[in-house]
Amino acid sequence: MNMDIRYSIVIPVYNEEVVLCQTYQRLKQVMDTTRESYELIFVNDGSSDHTLEMIKSIRAQDEDVKLISFSRNFGHQIAITAGMDYASGAAVVVIDADLQDPPELILKMIAKWKEGYNVVYAKRTKRKGETWFKKLTARLFYRILSASTDLNIPTDTGDFRLLDRRVCEELKRLPEKNRYVRGLVSWVGFKQTAVEYERDERLAGESKYPLKKMIKLSLDGITSFSYKPIKLATYAGAIIISSGITYLVVLLLLKIFSKSAIAGWNLVLAMQFVLSGVLLTMMGVIGEYIGRIYDETRNRPLYIVSECYGLKNEERIVKD
Ligand code: UDP
Ligand code: MG
């Protein structure tokens, strides 16, 4: 590994021809002020416009620019993952191509990193120029995600963040296919901190995240870090069984203490409640097993060691 490179900037790009040149220039300006070595890794996620040719021509003039190009559109999270896989810097920064994330913030992240943090994520205090629908759904999603998982995944943060080599190496060991990178970063642990910023408008072009991709991302986020949705079946089942039983008891009491006749469908309905409740609960039980099978098949390591003293350790464990 070439540890001479200090910073790797990973930029996933999908049909970004209208902003690409400006993004490159802004990033270059900012990174030049560090007076340290860096590489700009563009990950072309199967763009169908001139993005690829543009990156190639930028690269022809600037050898700090690197390029990974996918055979088709694999999605933002996979593009980020590829960028991290190929990055060789001591710190890796992931940033969107549309300048919604101000490149100048990278300097603040670097400062925090130099203070000793392993992960510095950018937390949005405001989102400008986005539709109320996007803001509302994003807000809702982050709240549901944090309610459904025990893991502390910071709210209102995107993928704009700095990861140091340690964290990057650990992320590379996580084999899962449906990746929700922000969650995985939280899962990895180590010293994490935030820098705050106001999210700008997209400089030009339109969002490459239509509703369909947003839903996929949210489902990946929630299902990778919790199986509470499965438990809902158990709870719903329990509620339905108890209402069915209450219904039956009321019918019984009416039968004993009241002279009026009870229509036969009442009994059928009450039994219907109890039975469907039992079925739902059983589905929840099966769900619990599936949840555990899911845990096993994800193949995540059980734990990550941050320091290790006095033991013969593997290469990836930092020695004191
Ligand atoms: N992107 C990508 N593949 C996709 C969708 C988006 O690489 O399938 C990139 C896109 O070029 C941008 C970043 O991911 O650099 C964030 O996308 P976008 O700005 O469209 O998302 P939004 O800010 O609207 O959530
Ligand atoms: Mg954007």
TrEMBL record:
Membrane topology: Multi-pass membrane protein
InterPro entries xrefs: Glyco_trans_2-like (IPR001173), Glycosyltransferase_2 (IPR050256), Nucleotide-diphossugar_trans (IPR029044)
Highest taxon above the source species: Bacteria
Keywords: Cell membrane, Glycosyltransferase, Membrane, Transferase, Transmembrane, Transmembrane helix
Gene3D superfamilies assigned: Spore Coat Polysaccharide Biosynthesis Protein SpsA, Chain A
Molecular functions per Gene Ontology: glycosyltransferase activity
CDD domains named among the record's database cross-references: DPM1_like_bac
Predominant location category: membrane
Signal peptide (from-to): none
SUPFAM superfamilies tied to this protein: Nucleotide-diphospho-sugar transferases
Subcellular location: Cell membrane
One Pfam family named in its UniProt record: Glycos_transf_2
Membrane-crossing residue ranges in chain numbering: 232-257, 269-290
PANTHER family: PROPHAGE BACTOPRENOL GLUCOSYL TRANSFERASE HOMOLOG, UNDECAPRENYL-PHOSPHATE 4-DEOXY-4-FORMAMIDO-L-ARABINOSE TRANSFERASE-RELATED
Protein's name in the database: Glycosyltransferase
